């Protein structure tokens, strides 16, 4: 199992510490974007870094603002950024979150999960097919945290993902920490979910850790991975998602000063040892 | 359940500008009364804090020192369609505070916004006027030391912000016309 890590550019000292332990670097177009002349575009400085990184490790793209599930349509801004990024850097696959961040052009400020209905499934499948046709290489969707109570739809969580992959052939990211958040916050049954999930298309797993606030486990990617998350990821890899190729440790750039470069490097060394076998 | 209607109601609940009606689906009644919804609103606040406290250090520190951070950030979240592109959030936040009723908050926000623009490569020059001597204020905010406003000299000052200046800005007293 390969190991990957998030990197948002502009911190070559951190990159140098991380590279010995990872095979993949995950980049998020939105966080390497900048505003110039009132327009959003990719940072030339970070793109230059990525071109160099691409010589040493594989690059995967993980967006946050496509909003594939918005009823009125997805974000063209995101697709333009992605187009630009893919023109400049070789990428193994790209991915997004199975949810939505805007409604009628109004940003939620948070990502909400799709209601698991036939209508929502039809909409997402059509868009996944369009994306796969547009880019012609693998596209993955991630299970996201449910920040509000789940809508009782036509499918279970795993059933919705199974139908999605069956209809479109798209890949999946299994975010293990998100499963833990859902279990902690809503009593989500992880064993039942993993037992029902068709694991064939799971190519990537995510591990991360946030903080507990008012009794809720938050998906903020600010901490080192908990042992329980690693145990669950190892279980999923051995028992369920045998086709997965990489585990990605995610942390947000705002967490770097608090964690420190050496601690992040040590965490990657630990994760590499955990997932090597 | 129509997807558009579902998403619109949830947007309204998240933004606290939709009241669930008796004929709405029971699901929305459940969401509106849930602790999860309150926590989701709190998460939105925390995400803004994560982004803005790093990018708007001076203004953020001043708001914290005046116990106005929560109030001002809540207003900003409520009144702005905040883009998921985090680079757009700091200038939007600083722009909003540049017209604050408190002249010191307005001056600090204008200064930080101008500095942000110049650092981004903006070739324009900006002038921000102050009614107190800015050195000690900026020094304290940068080091997160409480400002003793009584001891700060009053007077008319201006800060010129330009990429042509050695440190990108220059503080000068405003000379009165004789």
Topology, pairings included?
The complex is a heterodimer of chains A (277) and B (178).
Chain A lengths: L1 E5 L5 H7 L5 E4 L5 E4 L2 E4 L1 H10 L4 E5 L13 H13 L5 E4 L1 E5 L2 E8 L4 H18 L3 E4 L14 H12 L2 E5 H11 L3 H7 L5 E6 L4 E2 L2 E2 L9 H13 L6 E4 L6 H4 L1 H16 L1
Parallel strand pairs in A: 1-2, 1-14, 2-5, 5-6, 6-9, 9-10, 10-11, 11-14
Antiparallel strand pairs in A: 3-4, 7-8, 12-13
Chain B lengths: L2 H12 L11 H7 L2 H21 L1 H9 L3 H11 L9 H9 L5 H17 L6 E7 L1 H10 L10 E8 L7 E5 L5
Antiparallel strand pairs in B: 1-2, 2-3
Helix pairs in contact in B: 4-7, 6-7
Distance between the termini of chain B: 73 Å
Question: What fraction strand of chain B?
Answer: 5-15%
By DSSP (H or I, 4+ residues per run), the number of helices of chain B equals 8
CATH architecture of chain A: Alpha-Beta Barrel
Succession of helices and strands of chain A: EHEEEHEHEEEHEHEHHEEEHEHH
Count of separate DSSP helical elements of chain A: 10
Q: For this structure, what is the CATH class of chain A?
A: Alpha Beta
Shape of chain B: elongated
Question: Helix amount of chain B, in percent?
Answer: 40-55%
Q: How many domains would you count in the coordinates of chain A?
A: 1
- The count of strands of chain A amounts to 14
The end-to-end distance of chain A, rounded to whole angstroms, is 7 Å
Shape of chain A: globular
Q: Which structural class should the secondary elements of chain A be placed in? A: alpha/beta
Element order, helices and strands of chain B?
A: HHHHHHHEHEE
What pair of chains forms the biggest interface?
A-B, 45 and 41 residues
**Percent range of helical residues of chain A:** 40-55%
